[in-house]
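User: C-alpha cells for this one?
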Amino acid sequence: MNTETNIFRIANLAELSAEYRLYRVKGLSEGQEDYYRNLNTLVNRLSRQLQSPVTFLHREGSAFLVIREDGHKVETEHPVIGRTAYLEKGSGVLPLNFGKLDEQGMRIALRFIQFSIQGSLRNDYGLWQPSSGHPFYEKASRAVGNGAALHSGFLVRATALKDGGIGLCVDIQHTFLSAKPLPANLSKRDFAGYKASHAIYKFGHAWFDIQLAEWSELTVIEEKILDNGKRVNILEYLHAHCGTPLPPEVVRLSKDCAVVFYYNGRDEMRAAPSALCYPVLDPADPAIRRERRLTVLNPDDRRPQIKRFVKRYFSRLEFGSIPLKLADNAESIPTRTFRIPDLRFGGNAILSLRGTPGAKSTTLANLGRDRLNLLRDKSVGFFIQSPLQQQFFFMPETIRQSWGPEFLRQLCQMVDSLYPQELGYNPKLVPYDDRTGSAFFHQVQAIKAAAELHQVSSGFAVVMVHDPSPKRTRQHDELAACAIQTLYKDFDVRSGVIHTEVGSECYCLRSSGSGAPEYSLSQGKRGKFDGYLRGAAINKVLLTNEKWPFVIADAMHADLTIGVDVKSNYVGFTTIAKGGEYIDSRFASCRFAEQILADEFRKLLIEAVEVYSKKSGEFARSIAVYRDGRMFEQEQLGAHKALEFLINEGYVAPAATLTCLEIPKRSFTPLRLFEVGFDRANGRPHSSNPPVGRYYIANDSEGYVCSTGSPFDRQGTVNPLHVRKVFGPLSIDVCLEDIYWFTVLAWTRPEDCTRHPINIKINDRRLFEDAASYDEHELKTHEQETGR
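Assistant:
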C-alpha cells in the first residue's frame, strides 16, 4: 500500500515565466479598520476589469498590487470603504521564473497559474462554471429524482508542493438543477415563489449562476436593453451575443417568453428569459434527498473519476502560449501516521493503544467500542462526575398525552446508565401547549408561558419541539435557536433541543398485556432508537451540563490551546489545558459579523489566559490559537498585543510563545488521500480510505490530517482536515498532532470518530445556542399582538 494524493504535478514548470509590475497603494494604511478588506476589494475589482490575475504583497511598510504585465491600462483612482485608494505605477517590469520561486514568488505564481487554468477550462464547450472560482461541471447531466438533473464536475486549485514545485489539486463535485427551466409564461404570482433563489442562466454556450431579483410584465420581444448604444429587445440581444451555432433552447425560445431580472457582479441589473433559467436545487430538497447518496463516492470510485476528468479536460490547459504538461500519476506521499493518545476516564482509568502499564489495552479497530464500554462501566464512567444541577424537560402537550412519558422514562434510564448518581436523572416535566399555532414564535411563546407557570429558574433543560414548518433550505432551525436563547436570557437555563420526528417514527400504539392501550417501540426500530436515545443523553443532557466523558492523558505540545470562532457578531473563545481537564468557554459580542477587531481580540485573549493562570496557578509557556476559518490580520495584531501584555503582567512564562493556526471547515485546496494497493482477486488497483491519524505536510506552514477514516465505517472518501500556520514557533507537524489528538475526544459519539478538534466543536455548539439567527421582528410582532 502507498498513500496517494489527488495532486497532479506540473511537469514543465521550469518552462513557464511571466512578467509583472508593482503598483504602490496610497491612501490605505495597515492600522485602518477596513485595510485588508479594501485591499481584497481592489484585487477582485481589478482582476475583473482587466481580465487578468491580480494579487497584493507588502514591502518596506507599504502595500503593492501585483498585476501581470499584459499592456493593461490600470486606473489610478479607486473608491473603497471610507476613503479613496490611489495606485502609483512602478517604474520597472519584474520577471518571474517559475522554475525557481521564493516564498513571495510562489504566491504570485499560484495566482497566475490559477487564473490561466480557469480561463482555459472556461473555453471548453463541454463545461460550465456557476461563477469564478467555483467548480466546473459537465453540461451533460443525469436525470435523477423527481424532475432533477445531476451534473458531475470537479474543483481544481493550483497548490505549492514541498520541494518548490506546483501541482493541480483536483476533486469531484456535484450539483443538482431542475431538469426543467422556469415556465415561459411565468406570472408575477408564480415568480414570488422563486424570488431570491438561485438559477443557472443558460446564456447560449455560457452558463452561469444568477439570483432571481425581479419579474417583468414584458416579454422577451417587449423588454429592451442598451447594446452598443442601440436599444434592442432581449431576443435580439441573445441572437447577437450567444455565439454560433446557437443552442436549440435559444433557437426555439418563444417570443412571448417571460423576463426575469438579476444583478451581475458589478451590481448592475440584467434581464434573462425565464425559459433559459434552471433553478438550482439544494441537496436537502425533498425531491432529491434520496439522490444525495449518488454524490457520496467511496475512494475506489472517486480516484478513477478524478483521473478521468484530468485526462479528458486537462490536456488542453495553457499558460499563455505554453501548454501545461501534467504528470501521468498523482503525487504520492510518505506514509506517516500520528499515534492515538492515552485517554483518561472516571476513577483515573486509562485506555491505551500502546500498552501503558496499568491501563486497559485496546486496538485501533476496537477504540470506539471500548470508549463507549468504559463510559457504561459503573466502576469507570465519565471523567467529570460531579452531580447534575436542577433539570427540566419541556414537552409538547400532544406528545405528553401520547408517547412522551415512555420516551422520558427511557431517556432517564439511558442517562442513568451513562452517568449514575444517587438520586438519578429525574428532570421536572414542563408541558407546554403546542396547539396554539404552526409558526416558530407560537411554540416559543408557549414554552415561555410554561416556564413562567412552572417557575423554571437556574438549571439545565432538554426542550422537545415539533418543526413548525418545513425547514427552509440553508437556514438555521429558528425554533431551536429562539427557544434556547429565550430560556437562557429570561430564566438562566441552559438547554439542548431535540425534535419529535424520531419518536413519532419509532413508537406505535398497541394493546398492553392487560388489554389497555400503550405506546411502545415498533418492531425493527430498536437499533435506530437506542442510537438516537444515547445521542440525546450524551449531547442534550450530559454535554449541555458540561460533563466531559474522557480527556487526553498524555502531555501535549502546547500548554494552552484556545479555539476561536465568530458567528453573527458573536465571538467564542474556548480554552483547553491538560488534555481537557481544564476547559473554559467565554463569549462576547463583536462589531463585525465574521471577524474580530484587534482591540476585541486582545481583550478576549488576555481574559482567557488570565483566568486560566489564576484558576490553575500555572503559567503557560506555549499557547496555540485555533481559528475556525480565516484569521484576519486585525485578529493577528490583537494576538501579538495580547501576548506582549500577558508576558509583561506575569500571567504567562517570561519566554512564552504564541502560535496561531487557521482550521477552515472547507479547505480552499480540496486535498484527498487514498490508500492504493493491488487487488489480486480482481487484477486491478484498489483504493481505500487511510487510517485515522494519517497526515501530509504540504510545506512549512500547511498540513492535512485525517481525523476521520479507517477503521471507523463511514460512507464516502475521507476529507482531511486542513491546517495553516499563520505565525508562531511551533512546527506544523506538532501543531497537527495536537489538533488530531483533540479530535480523538469524540464526545458526541464515543463509538465513532469526529472531524474537528473539541475546542472548535464546543464553540460551534455554544455559538448556535447564543448566536443562531431567527426572525426577531416576527417574534416581537406576535408578542405585541398577543400582549405577552
